[in-house]
């Protein structure tokens, strides 16, 4: 609980995390994310429970943007995994035809 709360309904000049979808975005591999989670017990780039409690509060805008960024990164990982799955299915089909 905190006695400080600031709500900004509309803020100019602050964009969303759509830059995650830009070409060349440095997306971590799933192994890097897994290693970070095991070491730090939270997603990279997100607010931790300790940060919330030790500061007495947190900025909702930052948390919301962090969550959107992680959701977008998850979609990129899922798209890449689906492409790999399709490639493997194609290779399995080719190998099955050869036998």
Structure commentary:
With 99 residues, this protein is mainly α. It has one domain. It is built from three helices and no strands. It is elongated, with a radius of gyration of 20 Å.
Please sum up the structure shown.
The protein has 99 residues and is mostly helical.
What is the share of helical residues?
Answer: 55-70%
Please state the CA-atom Rg, rounded to the nearest Å. 20 Å
Helical segment count? 3
Strand content: under 5%
Largest sheet: none
Global structural class: mainly alpha
Distance between the termini: 65 Å
Count structural domains: 1
The coarse overall form would be elongated
- Uncertain residue segments: none
Task: Give helix and strand order, one letter per element, not per position.
Answer: HHH
Number of strands: 0
Tell me, rounded to a whole number, the average pLDDT: 79
Topology:
Blueprint: H1 30-40, H2 49-55, H3 60-98
For this entry, give a set of tags.
single chain; mainly alpha
């Amino acid at each position: 609980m905190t006695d400080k709360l600031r709500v900004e309904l509309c803020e100019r000049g602050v964009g969303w995390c759509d830059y995650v979808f830009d070409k060349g975005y440095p997306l971590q591999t799933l192994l890097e994310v897994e290693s970070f989670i095991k070491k730090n017990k939270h997603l990279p780039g997100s607010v931790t429970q300790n940060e919330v409690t030790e500061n007495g509060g947190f900025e909702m805008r930052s948390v919301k943007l962090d969550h959107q960024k992680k959701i977008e990164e998850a979609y990129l990982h899922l798209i890449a995994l689906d492409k790999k799955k399709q490639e493997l299915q194609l290779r399995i089909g080719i190998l099955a035809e050869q036998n």
